[in-house]
Amino acid sequence: MAPRVTRRAALTIAMAAPWASRPARAQAWPSRPVTLVLPFSAGGGTDLLARALAQHLGETLGQQVIVDNRSGAGGNIGAAVVARAAPDGYTILFGTPGPLANNKLIYRNLAFDPEQAFAPVVLIAKSPLVVAAKAALPVRNVQELTAQAKAHPGKLTVGVPGNGTLGHITALLLERELGISLTSVPYRGTADVVKDLLGGQIDLAMDFLPSYVPLAREGKIRALAVTTSQRSVDLPEVETVQEAGFQGFEASAWYALAVPTGTPSEIIGRLNAASNAFLASPRGQDALARLSMQAVGGSPAELRTFISSELRKWGPVVREADIAM
Asked: Per-domain residue ranges for the chain?
């Protein structure tokens, strides 16, 4: 995996090299600090990845890159800040599936259309979601969870990192597939979900995997399943939902950079090259490994194609489940 990603990132860097020779707007940018808006709270794996990338971008671009946590509304509050920002390269979105794609399928009065409001920069990484349980809950896998939920319909609570987030949608889909009823509890981000799961205030969590790996290894919580088609290398003993008997069930978290539409292509090119260099570097690979994420990289066009494919995949699912806010 790593060599392939490294070659891909290197190729993208080489393709972006011509931007460095242009004396135009990209050469004057950045002349002041850049803000990287993260539309979720501090402390989770997404926040840690954003900060590692921000440090690299700051060193590469020669200006400080400041992470600004703007949580709430499934990522919409922070994303709206970027959508309204001047397209000058000084405000960047560190986005996830919700604000960059799925929220347009869910929110009736979304203040922006992500496909129109943002120009893609690069797909940074992917990771599974995890179905996690508090240590005191007497279930060890999906089958036992199903039995417990059917014995106590609607009594088990599942924390998700916001209304309409990928965690929320996936939890609803899991309910439908398992034929169970859970009570979803939306939070303002992963850090709050983790805190209440550890404290026993909620029974389950459906969330991005990275923040839960060390807790599962230490026995502080129990990972019941991952949502990808293959097991996670970080928790190889944890089965997939498909292995539990629910074929075709798959959902992946992903992390990407985007800027306001109209941002000069020279600036997008420099951000893309710097991000790909981070993914190819030992520092970037170490950061992703510690966060249980898989590097992706590539071009802005590849990210646009990927987002379109995500919308095609989730659109029918959201409509069938009648998920709307």
From this structure: 2-126+254-321, 128-226
214, 64 Cβ separation under 8 angstroms: no
- pLDDT tens for residues 193-236? 999 999 999 999 999 898 899 999 999 999 999 998 889 989 99
CA distance 208 to 201: 19
pTM: 0.76
Q: How far is CA 44 from CA 192, 193, 209, in A?
A: 9, 10, 10
| CB within 8 Å of 24: residues ≥ 6 apart | 264, 266
Each residue of 35-70: pLDDT tens digit?
Answer: 999 999 898 889 999 999 999 999 999 999 999 999
CA 4 to chain centre: 22
Cα 242 to Cα 209: distance, rounded to the nearest angstrom: 17
Tokens standing for 130?
């995890």
Which CATH code for domain 2-126+254-321?
3.40.190.150
Beta strands in the chain (DSSP E): 34-38, 65-69, 91-95, 118-134, 157-160, 183-186, 204-208, 221-226, 252-260, 294-295
Please state, as a whole number, how many other Cβ atoms lie within 10 Å of the Cβ of residue 155: 12
CA pair distance 106, 103, nearest whole angstrom: 5
Separation between Cα atoms, residue 251 and residue 170, nearest integer Å: 7
